[in-house]
Structure formats: C-alpha cells, structure tokens
Design brief:
6 copies of one chain form a homohexamer. By secondary structure, chain A is α/β, with parallel strands linked by helices. Chain A folds into 2 domains: 2-95 and 204-245, Rossmann fold (3-Layer(aba) Sandwich), CATH 3.40.50.12500; 97-201, Rossmann fold, CATH 3.40.50.12500. The first copy, chain A, contains 10 helices and 10 strands. Chain A has helices at 12-25, 47-64, 81-87, 95-104, 119-129, 152-155, 157-171, 186-189, 201-215, 238-245; strands at residues 2-7, 31-36, 40-41, 70-73, 92-94, 110-114, 136-141, 175-178, 198-200, 233-234. A 4-stranded parallel β-sheet of chain A has the order 2-1-4-5, with helices on both faces. In chain A, strands 7-6-8-9 form a 4-stranded parallel β-sheet, sandwiched between helices. In chain A, helix 1 links the parallel strand 1 and strand 2 (31-36). In chain A, helix 2 runs parallel beside helix 3 and helix 2 (47-64) crosses helix 10. Chains in contact: A-B, A-C, A-E, A-F, B-C, B-D, B-F, C-D, C-E, D-E, D-F, E-F. The interface between A and F is large, with 56 and 57 residues. Strand 3 of chain C pairs antiparallel with strand 10 (233-234) of chain D, so a sheet runs across the interface. Chains A, B, C, D, E, F: InterPro entries: Asp/Glu/hydantoin_racemase, Hydantoin_racemase-like, Iso_Racemase_Enz_sf. Chains A, B, C, D, E, F: GO terms for molecular function: amino-acid racemase activity. Chains A, B, C, D, E, F: Belongs to the HyuE racemase family.
Chain lengths: 248, 248, 248, 248, 248, 248
C-alpha cells in the first residue's frame, strides 16, 4: 500500500518530521511518501493561509495521486481536505479529522494543544465544522514566538506538556491532541508522561488511511462527495483539469 | 465610494448579472466595478470548486483592492471570504453572509432557493459555519439541468417561484433568499409575487458593504481577523505577497 | 425617507443620545424622529422591565407609524421587536438585532459590553433567541452603580474600553458591540482606540432600516410574521386596535 | 394553599375551562381562583398578541397576588412568565413550562398538538427559549377555522386525537402535550385512548405550583430572577408600581 | 399512594437519609419505602459504577414493583432510569431528572453542587442526555476526601454552601441543585441561607412521582418507552423475566 | 495482537457472524476471539435491554481481559462501552463508536440503516451521546418482523439496500452505516452496489482497536476515564471485584 502525505506548506523541515512519524506509525508493507507545497507560507495559522495551502495541496495531490492508494493532507486544520475528497479517486484523510477520530475512541472531552495563540480560532472553526464542537474541552496554545518551525517541539516540549496537564486539570480533558505537523512525533516522545491518552495527527491520519484502503468502503457516486459535475473550466493546472474531465 | 465585486468564477454572463443588480441597488454616489476570475470553473456547486474559486478571488481582490473602499465576494457560498477579511485593508462582504444578515432582520426562519441539487450540501455547510444553522428552515433547489448559467433565472423563473412558495407552506420559511449570483436581480423581478420577504445576495452585499464603509467600525489589529503574522512565504502572486509583507 | 426611533423607556436624556447618533449615522435625505415612552422605567435591565417596555413601544409605534417608512425599537434587547414586525406595515429593526447583523459581517465571535451586571442574563437570552448564541464570545459589564443613565458613557468611558480589551484578549472576541441606548455614539468616540471593529446599535439599526426600505424585500402575507389574524379584542389602545382591524 | 390562575386573554369561556380542570387536578385543600384579562385578544396565536397578553397578565397578577401562595400564567406560550417570576413574591408557573416539566418525566421526545397553524411558530420559539428544542419531536396543529374558542375541544376532539397519533407514528413522539388553555381537560377526556402518555398544561401548572409552594425552595435574592433593581418609573399601574417599590 | 425508592448503592446510611427526606416531603397519605441494592458499590461516581447500579436497581425494582404506585431511582445520575421506564408498569422518576424539572420552573440557568470532582463528568453527560446541557450554568464539586458517605452533608455543609454561592456569583446560576442522595435533606437545612432557590433531588423525585400518579397521563403502548418487544432471553432474574414475559 | 469481541447478547448465531467478519477484516497477525453473553436477550432494541447487555458485557470482559490486547463491545449501541473504558486496562472500542469514526472520515452526513423500527430511538440517543447528532442525516429501519436474528441480512438484503438508497436520495446521506451485529459482513457483500461509501461496525471496531493498540496513546491516570476510585463494594462478580481492587 502506498500513501502520499502532502504538506500544504513550504517548510521542508516540517516535511521531514511528518515523514519520520508517518514511517514509524505505518503498518508493515505500507510505503510512505511526503511532498512539500511548491508555493505558500511556512506554516498555517490563519484562514487566509489555509486558503492558500488548500490550493497548493490540491495541485500537489492531483499531480501525484495516480501512484498512491490514499492521500493525507498533512497540516492540522486540514486545508482543502473536503474538496480533495470530492476530486481524488482514492481515500483522503486529514490530520485534524483523523486525530479527532482517534481521540473520539479514547474519551469524550478532547483538548487540543497548539503552537500559537493565533492558530486557535482557525482550529476551533475546523473542529466545529466537523460537528465536534461539543466534544472540545479546550484549545490551549504556546504564547511565545517560534524561532524555527521545524524545532518547535524540541524547543518547547516542557511548555507543551504543561499545557496538556492544565487541560486535564482545569478543562476536564479526557484525551489530548498534540496539534500541528510541527509537533509530529511528540506524542510518541511523551509516551507515559501525560495523565490521559495522547493523540498525534500524522500517525492517526496514516493509520486511518490504511484502514480505509483496507476496508474498501467504496467511493461516492452520488451525494455531495461524488466528483464535481462536468462543466466548463479555464486556466486550471493540468493535473486538476484532467481529474475534473476524466470519464465518469 | 467605490466597491469591487469579485466573481470567483469564469462566467462573464454572470458577471453581467452581478453588475446590473449591484448598480441598481447601490446608493447614489457609489461606483460599482465587477471583475471575473481569470481561472476556475463556470459556477461553483462543490467544496472543491469553492477551494479553486477562493484562491482565484484572493488573487483578483489583492490585485485591485487599492482602488476600492470595499470588496464583495460575488458568489453565494462566499468562497475565500473569511480569508480575505484577514488579508485586505478594507471591509469585505459575501453574498451568503450578507443575504443572511438581511434575512435575519425580516424573519426568524430562512429558506434558501438554489439552482442545483448538488449545490445544497455546500450551502448548508456555509450557513452552519456562520452559526445560522438553527435559522435555516430549508434549502430547496431546482432539479433540472442548467443549459446556460447566465440564463437560469429567465429559463426557470416559475420553478424557482414555486420552490419559494413550498418553502413557506411546507417548511415554515418566514424569509426567502434567492441564492447564487446567477439569480442576481430575480428578487427584484418577483417583487410582490411571493408571500414573504425575499432577499437577494448581490444587493444585500453591496448595501451592507456601503454601511460598513460609512460606519467605520475599524479594522482588526488583534484577534483572529488581524492580518496574518509575518512569516516566510514562497511562490505567491505578487499582489498577495505585497499585502502579506506590507508594514504593520 | 423617514425613520421613527422609539425609546421604550421614559428617559429623555437617553432619547437625546439616540437622536444624535441616529442623525450622525443616517444617509443624506433620511429624516430621523425619536419618541420616548410615556410610561415605563428609566432603563431596562430585566425581563419584567422588557415586558413593560414592549407594550409601551407598541403603543408609541402604533400611534405614529403612518408618517414613517421604518421603525426602530431603540433599546438594546429589542423589547417588542418581533411582535411589532407582525403588526406594523413598515420594516422594523431593533438595536440588538441590527448590531448583531453588523457584527456578523466583521468577525465570527462577538462580545457585548453592557452597562450593568444585572442586564447580562436578559441580553444573553435575546441573543440566544436570535440563534446567535454560538457567535457570542462573552458579555462583559460594568459592576458599579449608574448615577445618571444619560451620562453613563462619559462617566465610565475608560472602564467600558477596558472591558472591550479584556473581551478581545481573554474571550477571543473578534468584534465588539457597545450595548445599550445609553452608550449610543460611544463607538464613534472610541474610533481607532480599540483593537477590533466596534459596532453601535443605534447606527446599525438606522442603516439597516434604510437598507430594508431601499431594497423593498416585501411584506409577509403568509407565515408567522404576517399580521395577526382578525379576532375579537377588547380594551386595546385605539391605534393598536385600528392596525389589528385594518382591511387585509 | 391558594393558587391564582391568570388567563391573559379576554375569553371568559376559556377561563371556565381553566377553572374546571384546575379544580379537578388540584390536591385536597388547594383553593383555585381564575382571573380573566381586562384587555387583550380572544386567544393568543402570535408574538404581538403574546406581548399584549404579557402586560395584561402582569397587571392582573400584581393586583391580586397578595391573597395567593402561587400564580399560574394560564395560556400556553406563557406570556409574561419570566418577567412575573422576577416581580412577584410567590412561585409562578406557566402552562408550557409546566407541561414540558411533566412531559420530561414521561419520555424524551415530545410532540405538541395545537389549535391553529399560525400558533406553531410562536410555540416553537417558546419551547426553544426554555432549551427544550432538542426534545421537540414536532408541533402538529389543526388546519381548520375555529368557530368559538371555548368549544374547540368538543368540536375538534377527533381531529386532535388523530394529530396525536400521527405525531407518535411519524415523528417519534414519546409523550404528547395537548397545548392551549382552550384544550384544558381534553387530556383527561382522552384518558386511555392515546398510545403514549398525554400531558395537559393547566393540571401540570397547578400541580407543579403546589409542589413549589410545598418544597419552599426559596426566592431569588441575587441573580437574574431577583426583583428588578429600584429605579425611576412613570405611569405604571399602581399594583405594579407598589411591587417595584416595596422594601427589599 | 405507595412510592418505592430504590437506592442503587449498598450504603444503608444513605438509604436512611433518602427515607427521611422522602417522608418529610411526601404529601399526606403517601407511603414511602426505601430499598437498598443487594450488590454494587458504596456510591456512584463513574460510568462503570452507574452501569452496575443500573442493573442492581432494575432487580430491586422488578422484585418489588407490584406493591407500589410509582418507583424512584434514588441516586443522582439516575442509573437505569430510562430502561426502567420501559419495563415497569408504573411511573418512574429519578433524582436528576426530577431535580431538573423543579429547577426548570424556578430559573433558567442551573448549577449543580456535587460531592466529588470525579463525579462531575458523569453528571454532565446525564444532564446533556436529557437535553438540559444549555441550561447548565456549572457543576461545582467538593475537592476533599469523603470519610463516610452518610456523613458528607454534616461534614462539609459550609464548603457546599460556599460552592453554591460561587455558582451564583461567578457562573450566573439562577437555581442550585444539591446533587446526590448523600445530600438528601441539605436543601431543607439550608433554607433561607442561599441567595437563589435550592432544589433537592429526593423531594423533587417524590413530589413529581405523586403528580404523575395523580394526573394519570397514561402508559406508553407504542413508541420507544413501550415495553420491550417479546423475544428470547436467558439467565435473567425471575422478577425481570416475568415483567418481560407478562401478557401485553 | 489478540482482540476479544464480546457479544452482549445470547445469540450464538450472531456471534458467528461477528467472528467471521472480524477475522476477514483483521490485519495479518491479529487473533480474534468472540464470547457470547451468558445471560440477557436475543438482541437489543431498547434501553432496558441495553442495560442488561451492559452488565453482561462487563462480566464477560472482566473475566477474559487478561489474555487480550483490546476489547470490542460487539453490539451496535455499544452497551457498557464507556463504563468498560474506565474499568479495563486495555483499549475498548464499540461498534457504533467505531463505525462513526470511520464514517466521519468518508463524508459529513451519515445515515444508519437498522433492523427494526423500535431500535431507532435508542440508536439516536447513543449517537447523540457521542456528540454526533449534527452529523446524522437519518436512521432508516426495516418495518417487518425478524424471523431469526442470525438470518436478517440474507432475508432482507434487498430491503436494506433500498433503505440505504433512500437515505442517499431523500436524506442527503454521504455515508451509510449498516448497523447491528446481525448485519456484520453485509457491507462487504454489497461492495460496489451502493452509491456512497458503506461502513460496517464490526470491521471498523476491529481495525480501530488494532490502531489504538499499535499507536499506544496511553491510559487515563486522571480525568473521568481513569479507573473508578477505590471504595467499598459488595456482591460483585469476582473478576469485576478484582479489577476494581487491583493496585493502582
């Protein structure tokens, strides 16, 4: 089985973290590839940056999907995910969606630990859009500047752990999600150090993608996740145009 | 006052409808300009098409915003709206958001009349994302093929009116929104023919944009609608890059 | 265009503040008149006082509506608004409803700054009744005695501004509403001094009323905002009785 | 124990129905008195009529409360109830609120059977305002003209029963509320004829009022149901003024 | 009238408290009996303990129901309540459900005061399951060890009172529920000492059970609270088997 | 890896279906064992039957858990699941919870196809308890008698498929869950025959259990899913008592 993870941002250092955790968590026999967006920003904290990342992820996914059994949108917040689910002929998972699916199986009230204050509003809207708002105990975030996005988890490991503990004690969190591709792998490093189960987006997205490939639930032929209807278009990247025009 | 309306789709015929209704509804002294997306699809019905339209709208808006006092995203579903609100230095309104604001002042339960079955799921998600889910009486939609997007309102006027009447009688609608830029102006043509107030997205978006320009509520300097934080980026259109990098 | 603002309370000093801000914010050509309730309390903080204000507003509005194109219920909390929307032959807006409509176009999460602790529960119920509960970041209120209702905004300007800043920093507010007719005009005085957009109820209600008059969405002939059905009544003020009995 | 039921409408025939059912359902030793509003409409179907009924009920209750241990607002929809709870020194219940309290103890999903189509929107808003929206399976209503309000339950008994049966079969109702003072006593007449438990507003309101008097939960001295704060007022009926001004 | 209260726990000291408060609050002529679970834990704080208590309560209720007109599940959290409502031929009430019904008639926002930190999550889920989540101002709980479950209210009376006061001042509580059978009777002892109405679960459950017996709303013959359909079973306690198999 | 599936019902024929589908869907190297409840009913349709099944599942799980890496509660509706998550030292998944987790990754609006009318209310409450109510497009169910519970899927395959198609066309379902252990494996048989993705509870529960075992998120030491606090108990089955008393 071959899984493509698309980093919707331009940070190669984060793509490395994603690749490492994806390979550690994949089942035997699963091949992992990570692609970095050719345009965009260093990391997404806002709605506008998510809009850019969504379009970049769509291009990368469309160009490469033929060689893969599943695609993962590898940024927390899942930019472009629901659109790609319509477009691509294989299962697509996202880090937020997958982390929520895992967390949902471990406890009822979920807290998200994030890397910046600014990122919280966007995360909250994404969680709400999945209907998980009532499960959210809190979002807690670092309030200090990030010197290098690929090094956040080393630099701030203790602060992140402290945020998780406060989420349990003060917000009633029953599960913790360590959010954001820059934190990929941190849940593994903290194993046994937090008082409630801890979920990582990359490993969840990879494992759930494997499960969907394996269970073959079938593709939407009708309803709102079927392919977009054929219609005139102009100026789209070739790979996207081909997917839109391919015979149904 | 100068207002830019951005059609996130490639259909010039729809841009014409938008321009006509915008000019009819603007206050004396307001100048209206409409720009059509240089790339994308003929009209948006799905999440993926909205993702494309959002990026196209962002480019067009960024390239032209300097000459305007306000920007309108002129597609129902508001692709890119909340992202543009972060990025642009002027007020931004969208057709869905504005139509809901008007409808909210006319009745409690709101029905949306749409041009295709497929479009309904996306509309519902957008309405929910604004927190207006509990106000939605129903979405009712045409179930016949659209021969030319610019001619939908002429071709199907009676069917659209019948859908509105059923929304009142069967769904308890207290206000009707005629949704989609291709229906721009239809509310005006149907004046007096429907049993409850009828709202049009383009005229609402223009008038509310005027109100925001006039009342000068101020721009977000903090919080999640402030400009995206400065950070590395790559490969973005010049106009967008300039807005991201401009001094704060 | 002529707009009547009804102050459902007996405070002439507040009516003066309402009149001043309404005139400052109205479009050229709009005439503004403000009427003060002949009976009731100095300002509304509770459900019971709102019940009294609603009946007083209904009387004033019914007696004067013939000379106006629109009516504004000029107390935050909108006492009587939805009832008057059924009864009156012209558009009716309220300060809360209109401020929410404006705020909705400026950000997602909204905080309300209020003049007394007691008033908060009632405001929350009104916001919830409009389906805006999920958009409410917080209500924050002064916790000191009010010496003269017409002078609240001068006396407590700094405290009110500080409450707004805390709403942004601690509650995630993306827009601020300065609530209550006694604060009419304060948003204008604070222009540029708050870190997020600020909305005023009176100016919003006036501008949205103008928009409704201008767009002519039509009146409800069916549904729950049509006129109350003809039926026996007794002892009602003449102006109300005439409206109930007028030919349909 | 003495309980006052206030009919916020002018229909003496409905007051008779209320009195009969209240006496049948009261505990031994409870004295029942019913007062009819001196002004208002024959029966309430709309928000405006509720606004009038609320003010009328407040006057009647204020004038008579000294002789009673509890007050019941005896119209479904509970006009004025939450306001009166602030004002009056004794427990107050309303027909809707009390019927929901009873129904809540008998099943999860509740359907309301109502006497007119028009009345449904108002009922729905009241149920929502109590936070019971998620418990509402449906509201079903007669769709035929009412010839005399005091005779609705005789005239339409079979149609009302049929509506209840459809609510069980089609809407998943687990409990039925027969709504509206004009239906007072119908639940009793239909005993054993409906497939799920049936609740009546008048008997529920009386019994719950008795329970509150008996359990002595105490009166609100703080919070939003404490008495309205002392402040200037003008032109209010004497009985209301006295209650507002009485020493605290 | 005879009412059976089932303590789903093994603590005889708590059964004594339940019996005393039930007898104090019952109407003249009502006979009260309390049965203690033959197996289970000392008091329920968790979902697992509730699962055990539910089965124990079912056994006790099934064995004794023939001699009673109503049954009360006498633990806050109502273990087994909705299941017993299907099974038993008489009305069944629970302490949480009944306390919420009473509180609902006294104010809008309700706070629950509980005996342990751990118990809060379970209480919250039960309140949510009744659709009362939007009415919940807060749950506040003791954070100290319980030395003897039957003596909690004496030992911690001042701490419990302080929690209630904070719920009013900081959480906007308009009514307080003193939760848990071990607190049965405390509301009565604190009469007049708290600033808002206070509700007790045992007395509410008894009074509401009396009301249901008296009003005879009828038993569910259809819908989801009708008796479980006849089907094969094995190994069930005799009393339960008899109720499942009895002729319909 | 060894996974125990507990059938909370007494039907060996259903246990066979569960075992077959579990083995087909498990990863290489996963060993599957299924245990049938020693007491209870043939299949669960009601809250009372779920209460019995929960206690039976708890006993079976407690007696066997030492030999397994994860436990699956193998009845749709997940009787006892959240309680067992507190008690057991290994991950626990349930069919409903797991099917929702899978469906959540495939579409937004989910419909459940069920085997009996009666079962729907209980399913709805369980889905709501997980916070998935807003994701539920509909529950549709067979309305014919079940002759043998182990043969439902053969006997009614076409009717079940037709229900799924109606859920897509009329309710907007984007994913279908075939609910109930008696339907285990049906999704696999219908592969390619339904217009949207189809999810099966048993295979989802097994795969998600494997993922949790593999990712090692850690066990709750604090919060509401930690083990029940030590306290007196009496009369519990030995295996349960041992787990409650084991050193922490």
């Amino acid at each position: 089985m071959r899984i493509l993870l698309v980093n919707p941002n331009i940070s190669d250092s984060v793509s490395d973290l994603i690749r490492d955790e994806a390979r550690r968590s994949a089942s035997p026999g699963t091949e992992i590839e990570v692609k970095t967006a050719p345009f965009g920003v260093a990391y997404i904290e806002t709605r506008f940056e998510a809009l850019v990342g969504a379009y970049a992820a769509a291009q990368v996914a469309a160009e490469n999907v033929q060689r893969f059994d599943a695609v993962v949108v590898a940024a927390f917040g899942d930019p472009g995910l629901t659109g790609l689910r319509e477009l691509l002929p294989v299962p697509v998972t996202g880090m937020t969606e997958a982390a929520l699916a895992s967390a949902h199986l471990l406890g009822h009230r979920i807290s998200i630990i994030a890397i910046s204050q600014r990122i919280q509003a966007w995360y909250r809207e994404v969680v709400d859009s999945y209907g998980f708002g009532s499960r959210l105990a809190s979002i807690r975030a670092l309030d200090r500047p990030i010197s290098a996005i690929g090094g956040v988890q080393q630099e701030h490991a203790q602060a992140l752990k402290a945020l998780a503990e406060r989420a349990v004690d003060e917000d009633g969190a029953e599960v913790i999600i360590l959010a954001g591709a820059p934190l990929a792998g941190l849940a593994r490093s903290l194993q046994g150090q937090l008082p409630v189960p801890v979920v990582d987006g990359v490993s969840s997205a990879v494992r759930h993608a494997e499960t969907l490939v394996s269970l073959k639930p079938g593709r939407a032929q009708r309803g709102s996740f079927a392919r977009p209807p054929a219609k005139p278009h102009r100026g789209l990247p070739d790979a996207i145009a081909r997917l839109l025009d391919s015979p149904r």
